[in-house]
Predict the structure.
Amino acid sequence: MSFTFAQYQESADFLRSQIGSFTPKVAMILGSGLGYLGNEVEQPIRVPYGEIPHFKASTAPGHKGRLVFGELDGQNVAVMQGRFHYYEGYSLDEVTFAIRVLRLLGADTLIVTNAAGCVNQSWNAGDLMVIDDHIKIALDSPLCGSNLPQFGPRFPDSSYNYTPALRQMAAEAAAEQNIPLRHGVYMYWTGPQYESPAEVRAARILGADAVGMSTAPEVIVARHCGMQVLGFSLMTNMAAGILDQPLSEEEVLISAEAGKEHFSALIRSCLQRM
Ligand code: HPA
């Protein structure tokens, strides 16, 4: 099912009634382990997803399910505490719904983070990567169906999905903070099963450094409506088949927890520079 422009507007109108004259500039979608950054927002206005017209509840572990509006490191932000994944049973329209709503509220930049499996064999679990580009060949595009020209063109360009100036800024922020930062390509898989070793080899041959189950759909929709995008992956594990051991959700959540200090310091430093 595709949403109509009026439905996006209805959600935006409701949120406007909650946030008054506050205008978010940076929309933030925080992946596994990082949602707590939403608790650091100053003068927060919290809106549970369940109260927002057309929003769904989020079922993934470690994901809360509310929007937090307020100030973080000098920026007006809207933090999604909890995101939607296709593997939860949502359509790509539902997965990406909030992006367009936040765009209607004034957000012009998206910061998106995720936990990912590390495909690049010269890197390690625990590494942070700024996403230079993505590969999404799984599933339809979230832009399939009638185009909504109020948001963007029928055939949007994908040459600069991850804004070059923001990637450069992230590199400078990381260097200043002595946080090692990789640059690489993220490949989207639907999940919920982790990739097979053969799929991980295929991803590597195609040019991926990391694999994960989120981010690319949201970024496609954000770019369509003209937002700038900054994306990060935390390598929570070596992708399947690299080490002779099975992958587990527990390993992913433990690594996400272990990496969150560096990760949040980097993101906050980026916010300060924007
Ligand atoms: N694959 C896909 N998604 C993930 C992984 C992985 O290895 N680790 C964390 N999220």
